[in-house]
Structure prediction request, 349 residues.
Amino acid sequence: MQKDFLSNNESIFLNDAALDYNFIPSVIMHRESQQAYIGNSIRLLEQNKNGRNLFIFGSPGIGKTLATKYVLKQVEENSEEILPVYINCWKHDTSYKILIEICNLINYKFIQLKATDQLMNEIKPILNKKSIVLCLDEIDKLQDFSILYYFLEDIFKRSLIFITNEKDWINSIDKRLSSRLYADKLEFKSYNYNEILDILKQRAEYAFVKNVFEKNCLDEIAKKTFEFNDIRAGIFLLKEAGDIAELRSSKKITMQDVEKAVVKLQDFKIKNDLNEEQNEILELVKEHSGKQIKDIFNYYKKGISYKTFRRRLEELRDGKLITLEDKSLGVRGKISYAYYGLNKTLVEF
Prediction:
């Protein structure tokens, strides 16, 4: 039986980086037509024209970001005249933060103590030496639209790509801006079961040694992924099942390993519904549940204002992950508390 168990220097993982959500496979399966559309929209820049502006939308975890990043990577590798810029608006949610990222990309160092307008005026001659593809992922998290006006007015040859889960986002912005963007809509529809199974088999081939899954394990993972309608759930299950099997030194991933991984899917959902900052604040509330919000804020050392911190707490409350309670002090105002989870004594069902 010893042959069924891993020795100290063995692993069932061939390349666990292939199970990172940001991993870009050499072939993006079942998104060929969408990639072609994105590529053709950018390719107009090679003809000394403006590229198309694209509004890409669809449910979370169905390949929008991956397919777009794949095309941008191809552009970067094959064209010296086009500068692709990818920015996630969860992390960089203002025009100023986006400009700072662009400055870092073009290695422009003179950014200290400069307002957004001044910074844009200084870098636009540099940007205009090439054509620019600016991709703003999770565009619905952007707090202001100055960056869009800058690119429309100051950049000669550009293609703007917006990615969001919110299909109505484009209808929510100012009509004057919307008409100037004149963005084509590109919808990503959900994968069907067979497409999900194909994608998970591909990831498994990248990530694991051959024949590591016992019969029907990948089918079960594909089934759960289809139920979640999020390919990231499947990648999560591949990694978790592999870790569970390796923890017991097994050379095979069994159905029992998959079932144990499925139990952890709720952790995946919470983690991937939130950005990094929200996850950190959620963990802080979990650690200090029941304390005053101002006291919890004092434990958070990431340089955001109390107002922003409170807004993040309200987002977690709206997601039914925490409970907020205000206690009146009469003429002296009120004290606010935060509790991890739904506190049934405070929340009415």
Observations:
- The chain is about 45% helix and 10% strand.
- The mean pLDDT is 92.
- The domain at 32-187 is CATH 3.40.50.300 (Rossmann fold).
